[in-house]
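Hypothesis: this fold can be encoded by more than one sequence.
Test: take the structure tokens below, design a sequence, compare later.
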């Protein structure tokens, strides 16, 4: 009996290695006694072992996708401070299912500096990574630099095509620095290439009415906004910067209080 069991373990070790699934061997051993004691069917036992392997692979893959996304720091919805943003909590919660990614919908987070836009954008990116989506995070300026480099090297179409393979692209800090005309056109191409194909999450400290100044062209800005908000959830955050709480300062000099939803 011992010899037979040893041979079985050797065979399982070989098969698990061939499948590149070494965790199966561990799960099989751990669950075997439980299966015998509970009288599981062969099918129940096999399903339980494979479920452990799939869960472990998903967790490992998510960690790799999160690391590759380029987040400045990993943030989650669970650790977001809702004290100042309770009005949008349900709106954000509805996005946590990740359904917007399957529908190639966008999310736009508007609000003054320090109100949690980047935190929420990152949290949605982390959710996407856990759901198997590839994610990339960068500021608007960094995206323009990336696209400018590709354009200068004559490979902009290839770069845009490569980026379309990402389920989610996050563009942080739209509006903090103005763009030159060429940069605005490149950014417009990024938005257009993903329109109705894959999702964008954007954050901005400016209302949409101020984007013309950022992009130096009202026509380009209007066309870009049209594509972004056609299938989008727009979330407006309000209040003072959380970074200034307890410091006796109500707001930053750059804080705008007239940020509104484009439908207003």
């Amino acid at each position: 009996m011992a010899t037979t069991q040893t041979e079985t373990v050797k065979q399982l070790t070989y098969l698990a290695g061939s499948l590149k699934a070494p965790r199966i061997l561990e799960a099989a051993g751990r669950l075997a006694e439980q299966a015998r004691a509970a009288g599981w069917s062969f099918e129940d036992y096999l399903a339980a072992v494979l479920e452990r392997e799939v869960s472990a692979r998903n967790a490992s893959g998510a960690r790799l996708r999160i690391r590759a996304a380029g987040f400045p720091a990993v943030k989650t919805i669970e650790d977001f401070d809702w004290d100042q943003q309770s009005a949008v909590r349900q709106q954000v919660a509805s996005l946590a299912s990740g359904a917007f990614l399957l529908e190639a919908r966008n999310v736009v987070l508007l609000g003054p500096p320090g109100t949690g836009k980047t935190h929420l954008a990152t949290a949605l990116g982390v959710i996407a990574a856990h759901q198997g989506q590839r994610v990339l995070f960068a500021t608007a300026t960094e995206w323009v630099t990336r696209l400018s480099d590709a354009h200068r090297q004559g490979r902009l179409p290839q770069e845009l095509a490569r980026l379309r393979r990402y389920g989610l692209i996050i563009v942080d800090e739209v509006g903090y620095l103005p763009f030159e005309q060429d940069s605005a056109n490149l950014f417009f191409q990024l938005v257009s290439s993903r329109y109705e194909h894959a999702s964008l999450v954007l954050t901005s400290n400016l209302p949409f009415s101020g984007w013309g100044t950022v992009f130096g062209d009202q026509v380009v800005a209007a066309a870009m906004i049209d594509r972004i908000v056609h299938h989008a959830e727009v979330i407006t955050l309000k209040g003072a910067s959380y970074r200034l709480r307890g410091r006796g300062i109500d707001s930053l000099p750059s804080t705008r209080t007239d940020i509104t939803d484009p439908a207003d």
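The first strand starts at residue 106 and ends at 110. Residues 67 and 74 are 9 Å apart (CA to CA).
Hypothesis status: open.
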